[in-house]
Amino acid sequence: METRVTKGQTIYSLSLIICLIIAMMLTLIDYFFEASKVCLLIFVILFIGLICYLISIRHIKLSLLNLIQTSENILEQKDINEWIDGESYISVLSSQLYLLDKRIKHMLEQLSLEQKKIQDYVEDISHQMKTPLTSLMLKEDILLEKIPQEESHIEDMIYQTQRMKSLIESLLHLAKIESQTIQYHFQECSLSLLIENIRLNLKPLLDKYQVTIQCEFSKEIYCDPRWFEEALENIIKNCVEQEECSQVMISCKESLMETYLYIQDNGSGFSKDDLPHIFERFYHNVHKKESIGIGLSVSQAIIHQHHGTISAKNHHGALFTIALPKKITKSKYSVTKM
Fold this sequence. Notes:
Elements: H1 2-34, H2 37-75, H3 89-146, H4 151-178, E1 187-190, H5 191-201, H6 203-209, E2 212-215, E3 220-223, H7 225-240, E4 247-254, E5 258-265, H8 295-305, E6 309-314, E7 318-325
Parallel strand pairs: 2-4
Antiparallel strand pairs: 1-3, 4-5, 5-7, 6-7
Helix pairs in contact: 1-2, 2-3, 3-4, 4-8, 5-7, 7-8
């Protein structure tokens, strides 16, 4: 649909120009044969009309380029210092974009203040909860040294305390993500480099389960490398821990507007009961009793805040599909000040 509209716009403009040129040629030929002043007058009128039409097209093009630049500045939260003045539809649209930019910036300022309050609350809660847990773990270590005959029970207490600490940290981490208090720093990143970092982070787990990660491509994606790497790591870790999994395959495909990332393992896949709930917090299947069940929720939240989507299904194992919007830049667009 988009291609047809673009071609149609080009064909309409060229058709009108061609028709004017043909009419001018016929009028000029008729003038040479009959020497009619009327033909000469028609030729001059058509010529002036063609020049005015070309000037009008150039003016509209420059105005549209200005609107494109204004829209890009709004998306990137840059300042808009000028707009197109006048009473034309393009001028009205330019003025509306300017007002929209002002309102968006005001809303973002208010949202930033609310996020700062939530961030302060989360940090206070984190501090209040970590302090007694740390004290409890220290006392358990002392207890383990003094009562060796109860060693097995104390070790279990230490394990459960550490698990509780990990759960609290994960919950605070998820709360921070979902409250949108994280400042993302988007940039063009090498996807293969992110995968390589994840491979190094998960090396003990990969060795334990004897799983390999296959990734044979090099694509640039627009993301925050730190947080998007965490999202991918949680997904790949879930694949590695699948039953009968020996390989995790990562592939990539691009469309006009999005980049699709596919993460697939060759394990047993998800059960029909688990599949609708895998992105729910605290949900874990029967084969992962030690799992907290929060990693995929974190991944989903991060991907959503990258303006992307994630889905999962069974396809010769577990298959995760991530769709991220592409940052489209057209170097041929250059705005000339009007």
